[in-house]
Design a protein that fits this description.
alpha+beta, Glutaredoxin, two-stranded parallel ribbon
Amino acid sequence: MHTMPARRVGAVAALTVAAGLGLTACGDQPAAVVSTPSSSARPDTISLNPPDAKPHLTLTDQNGHSYDLVKQTAGRPTLLYFGYSHCPDVCPTATVDIALAVRQLPAPDREKLRVVFVSTDPARDTPRRLKQWLGAIDPTFTGLTGDFTVVQKAARSLGVGVSTPVKHKDGSETVSHGAEVFAFSPRDDKAHLFYTSGTSQQRYAADLPKIVKGRTP
């Protein structure tokens, strides 16, 4: 696993800010940036100006059904993360922290929120595998899998680096991906911020009530 800047910004000053905030990913291929991080953001969040549009993405969910991200999360507060179920550290940590924070929300807010996990390792992350893995974390989360090129294009539209999985001679695989969690507002279906790798459960718990209401933390 390697450290890399998850989003490449256009200005040197903005790049300095991003590097200082410790953006990490499992790979070595940063993607082009869509939005420039705000220098006023907290260390575990990056504000987006302008906000990022939700990527047009249709894949298969953990129940084997077609899932159109834009249509099925329209008007819903949504957290979006690109990762894979065989990840040894970053992905399970992030999803568990989010799940623990979601459980602290009132029931009506939990019903509104959508948490979508998009696999960057679709060859191994079958719908059955995602259902089993996410079911152990939070069965209300949506897992998506399908054509890798579709996943990569959607990720790059948000400035998230995702590289083709590499199989090694010993049978192991390296899956490189950005580690950001994007928060889309129900007001305009756009991401006004994203959370960096290592964001705590406490931060998610503090911010989710505001995100559900369409406010930017």
